[in-house]
Each structure stands twice: as C-alpha cells, then as structure tokens.
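During the no-cost extension, the postdoctoral fellow (Dr. R.K.) reprocessed legacy sequence entries with the updated structure-token encoder. One reprocessed record is reproduced below for audit purposes.
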Amino acid sequence: MIEQISIQKATLEDISVLAHHRLAMFTDMGVGTPESREAAIELFRPYLEANLPGGVYQGWLAKTEDGQVIGGGGLIVEPWPAAARDSRPQSRRAYVLNIYTEPEYRGQGVARQIMTAILDWCRVEGFETVSLHASSLGRPLYESLGFEPTNEMRLKL
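Re-encoded structure tokens follow.
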C-alpha cells in the first residue's frame, strides 16, 4: 500500500516518463501494433517538446515519497470554437488523455488523485467542461467523477 504520493506538474525533463506512460497505456489497451505504438511515441516526444513549454500540453506525475514516478496524466488545452452549453463560453477546450498508473500501484487511488489534480486545475482555469475518451479500465473512475457519455462518433479513413 502506498503511504503517501504527491502529484506534481511535468516539465521538459519528464518527456521520457510521459512517453513511457503513453506507450504503456496503448499497450495495456491493446491499441495498434507494437510497430505503430512505437511510431506514435516517436512522434509524441517532439509534440511534447513543442507543446509542454507553452501550456498546450499539461502533464501531471504521481510520485512516491522517495520520488519514484508511479503514474501520470495529461491535458491538452487547445483553441476551440465556443460552445453554447457553457454559461461562460470560451474559445478553448480541455481534453484529458494519457491517464496511466504503473501496474503494481493500480487499485490504490493513484489515477483518482491524478484526475483530481487535473480537474482542480481546470476549475481554476475557468473551464466548465472537460472531455476525454475512456478505456474500459478507466470508465468506472471517470463515471465516479461525474463524466457522462456524449454523442461523439468516429470515422476511420
């Protein structure tokens, strides 16, 4: 059992661990092939280098008392047309992704603490709506935090 963890914002020095989390998440979900996952991660690194400093990509890391990273998550803040569903429309949206907990720490509330930190940050930033795509493993957590299904659809070209 984890005695205490801290949630900290990720920096450029954390790109390798952020990439590891994304790769491990895709692997655990069975998304893509080993080759396509590796190719996606090779594109993710320069994406982080370009977007982490300016805040387009926000990252959080869960660490044990001795500094071991045991999980993480991300948020993309991107320009987006204002939506009428918000009482304070704004021209940006918040999108959660890459929520990951190392296997030996799962079921101990790590992902919930990461999500809580992300949602708290979104509230401070004035977002009324936060979106994400839920894996089957993550869905119970997101539903317990109040996320609801939407009518989004996808076409693979």
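The chain has four helices and five strands. Residues 5-11+55-144 form a domain with the Aminopeptidase fold (CATH 3.40.630.30). The remaining legacy entries will be reprocessed before the final report is submitted.
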